Amino acid sequence: MNTGFTVAQLTAAATDAVRAPSLHNTQPWRFRLRDGGIEVCVDPLRGLPATDPSGWGARIACGAALFNLRLALAVAGTPATVRLRPYPADPNVVARLEPDVPRRPTPTEQSLYAAIGRRFSNRAPFWTDPVPADARWRLVEAARAEQCWLELLIGTGAVNAFAEIARSAHRVLERDPAYVAERAAWIRSEPSPDGVPTASGGPQGEPQDLLPQRGFGGRNRGPGRDFEPEPLVAVLGSAGNTTTDQIIAGQALQRVLLTATGAGLAASMISQPIEVSGAREALRLSLGRFGTPQMGMRIGYGQPGATTPRRPVEEVLDVPVAPA
C-alpha cells in the first residue's frame, strides 16, 4: 500500500516544477511534504506588490509549476490526484497532490515532459515563417485539455485591436514609478539564480512597435526598424476569474507553452493587458468570448536561446525534519 510521496520523489519532481515561468522570474513558489502529500504554495516573500498587487501573477506561476509537477510525477510512474485550494483558510496553498494508482506515462505526458527543460521566454523578434495550421490546432487543444480556451487572433483587425489595448495598458503601467522601480529591481546584469538577465531581455522597445516591450535592459536596435511584422498573437482565458480559475489558467498556460516548445515554436508572454483591469475588460469585449482573459502571448519561430536561471531546488522545499 502506498503511504505517500517521499522526500526523494518531491525533490525530483520539484526540480522540474521550478522551470515554470513567472513574472520577472521571481519564482514565487514553495513545495512541501505534509502527511504524505505534496503541497504547492505561493511564497508571499517573493511577491510583486506594485506589479501584481492582487497575487494573480503568483497564482498563474504556481499553476504553471503545478503542471510541471504533475508531469514529472506521471513520467516517474507515480501520478497524483490533485485538489486545488484544499484549505480555504490558507489561501497560499494552491494545490495538494496525493499518490494515485501507479501507471505508465502516456506518450503525450512524455512529450510534454521532454519540453520542460527547453522552454524559455523568447523576447527576441520572431521570423516571418507562419505557424502551420496543425500546430495552431494543437495549441488550442492544449488549453482546452486544461479547461481553458486559447484565442488565436486572425487578421490585421484583431491583432491591431489587441495591440492598441496592450500599448494603452503598457503606458498606464509605465506611469507608475513603483512599477518601474520594481521591474528594475529584478533585472540582472550579473549571474543570478532569479530575475531576468539582461541578455534575455530582448531588444528595447521603439515607438513604432506593434506590441509593447518591457524594459529589461535589452540591447538597442536601429531607429525605425520594425521589431517583427506579423506575430501570431494568442490570448489564454478561463471560465471565470476566481483564485481557482487563475491556478487552472496557470496549468493551461504551461501546457500551451510546452506544446509550443515541442513543436519547435518560441513564445513569450504579454501580460500588460491583464495587469490593468480596464484593459482586461476591453480585451474581453474585443474577443467576444465567455470568460476572463488570463494571459497574452506571441508565438512563432525564433532564434535559439537559453533558459533563465533558477534557484537551487533545496531553497524552495519544506520537508519534515527527521526526529533526532
3D shape: globular
Total DSSP helices: 9
Order of helices and strands: HEEHEEHHEHHEEEHEHHEE
What number is the mean pLDDT?
92
Q: Major sheet: order of its strands? A: 3-4-2-1-11
Decide which structural class fits the backbone.
alpha+beta
Largest sheet: 5 strands, mixed
Domains counted in the coordinates: how many?
2
Give a written overview of the molecule:
With 324 residues, the protein is an alpha+beta fold. The chain folds into 2 domains: 111 residues, NADH Oxidase; 168 residues, NADH Oxidase. A 5-stranded mixed sheet has the order 3-4-2-1-11, covered by helices on one side. Strands 5-8-10-9 form a 4-stranded antiparallel sheet, with helices on both faces. It has a two-stranded parallel sheet with strand order 6-7. Strand 3 and strand 4 form a beta hairpin. Helix 2 packs across helix 3 and helix 2 packs across helix 7. The two termini are 27 Å apart. 44% of the residues are buried.
Task: Please describe the structure with a list of short key phrases separated by commas or semicolons.
324 residues, alpha+beta, NADH Oxidase, 5-stranded mixed β-sheet, 4-stranded antiparallel β-sheet, 9 helices, globular
Provide a concise account of the structure shown:
The protein folds into two domains: 7-117, NADH Oxidase, CATH 3.40.109; 133-300, 3-Layer(aba) Sandwich (NADH Oxidase). The chain has nine helices and eleven strands. The protein has helices spanning 7-17, 56-75, 107-115, 133-145, 156-174, 177-185, 243-262, 272-275, 277-287, and strands at 29-34, 37-42, 80-84, 93-99, 149-152, 187-188, 196-197, 232-238, 266-270, 292-300, 317-318.
